[in-house]
């Protein structure tokens, strides 16, 4: 006889006034990480709360509900809301979206807190690049994108540089076929055919370090100090199709 499949019961959700919430001592996060509470508060102020808090009823000595709720999962969001209340930008009775767990749930509050943080997956750099590219096409500057998503301008610029990489190589990276460092090495040129040729060569040889990829992609360039450029002259070299002859800076 087939065993009956146990049905899953999801926790209910409801809006709870902020002044009825308290931070739980069961929250496992103790060390500061990620964006600051101040930055998170600004983000909530701009786009409102995107993720509910996970709460449980607070019981009195007799095991009766007090009307208050503790927050074991979502402590950083709680602190950000608390900051907005202190700044008088959010009223103390503002309704906060919450997922309400039973006080006697089989799973402990500590486990909920740990699971929320451990099971969270960071956004893949390629997805980040595509999102940044969309924002750029919408007219946002690199500085605007960086400010809105709490990353450095350099990170935005680095991700957007991936637009110069052949789509086939982006697919390889998406399937974990190369590292981000290797992928970034291909941004030294916009020649997709050459990129694909170099990747085929280095992936077969096993000599696929990022510096090797950059060297192969730039091996046709010649510095102004190179004997070839000095022999024929920089102007003549470049006129004949030579590239990369970096001209020396003359001192005044």
Short description, anyone?
By secondary structure, the chain is of the alpha/beta class. Helices cover about 45% and strands about 10% of the residues. The protein has twelve helices and five strands.
Report on this structure.
The protein is 44% helix and 12% strand. The chain is an alpha/beta fold and 252 residues long. It has a domain at 12-118: Conserved hypothetical protein from pyrococcus furiosus pfu- 392566-001, ParB domain (Alpha-Beta Complex), CATH 3.90.1530.30. A five-stranded mixed beta sheet has the order 1-5-3-4-2. A hairpin with a 5-residue loop joins strand 3 and strand 4 (65-73). Helix 5 packs across helix 6 (153-160) and helix 9 packs across helix 10 (210-217). The longest helix has 14 residues, at 192-205. The radius of gyration is 28 Å and the shape is elongated. The model is unreliable at 245-252 (pLDDT under 50).
In total, how many beta strands? Answer: 5
- Radius of gyration over all CA atoms, rounded: 28 Å
CATH topology descriptor of the domain at 12-118: Conserved hypothetical protein from pyrococcus furiosus pfu- 392566-001, ParB domain
**H/E topology pattern:** EEHEEHEHHHHHHHHHH
User: Could you tell me the strand content as a percent range?
Assistant: 5-15%
Arrangement of strands in the largest sheet: 1-5-3-4-2
Helix proportion of residues, in percent?
Answer: 40-55%
- Mind telling me which CATH architecture of the domain at 12-118 this is? Alpha-Beta Complex
What structural class do you assign from the helix and strand content? alpha/beta
Q: pLDDT average, as an integer?
A: 84
Query: What is the CATH class of the domain at 12-118?
Result: Alpha Beta
- Regions with little confidence, pLDDT below 50 for 5+ residues: 245-252
Number of helical elements: 12
Termini separation: 94 Å
| Overall outline | elongated
Largest sheet: 5 strands, mixed
């Amino acid at each position: 006889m087939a065993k009956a499949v146990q049905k899953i019961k999801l926790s209910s959700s409801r809006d709870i006034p902020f002044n009825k919430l308290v931070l739980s001592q069961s929250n496992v996060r103790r060390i500061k990480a990620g964006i600051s509470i101040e930055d998170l508060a600004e983000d909530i102020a701009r786009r409102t709360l995107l993720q509910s808090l996970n709460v449980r009823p607070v019981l009195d000595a007799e095991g009766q509900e007090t009307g208050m709720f503790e927050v074991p999962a979502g402590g950083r969001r709680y602190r950000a809301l608390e900051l907005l209340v202190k700044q008088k930008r959010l009223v103390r009775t503002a309704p906060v979206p919450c997922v309400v767990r039973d006080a006697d749930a089989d799973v402990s509050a500590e486990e909920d807190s740990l699971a929320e943080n451990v099971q969270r997956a960071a956004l893949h750099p390629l997805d980040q690049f595509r999102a940044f590219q969309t924002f750029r096409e919408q007219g946002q500057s690199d500085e605007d994108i960086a400010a809105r998503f709490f990353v450095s301008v350099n990170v935005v610029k680095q991700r957007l540089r991936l637009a110069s990489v052949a789509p086939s190589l982006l697919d390889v990276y998406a399937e974990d076929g190369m590292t981000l460092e290797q992928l970034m090495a291909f941004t030294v040129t916009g020649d997709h055919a050459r990129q694909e040729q170099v990747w085929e060569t280095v992936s077969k040889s096993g000599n696929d370090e990022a510096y090797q990829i950059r060297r192969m992609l730039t091996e046709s360039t010649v510095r102004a100090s190179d004997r070839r450029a000095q022999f024929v002259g920089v102007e003549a070299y470049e006129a004949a199709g030579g590239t990369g002859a970096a001209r020396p800076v003359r001192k005044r």
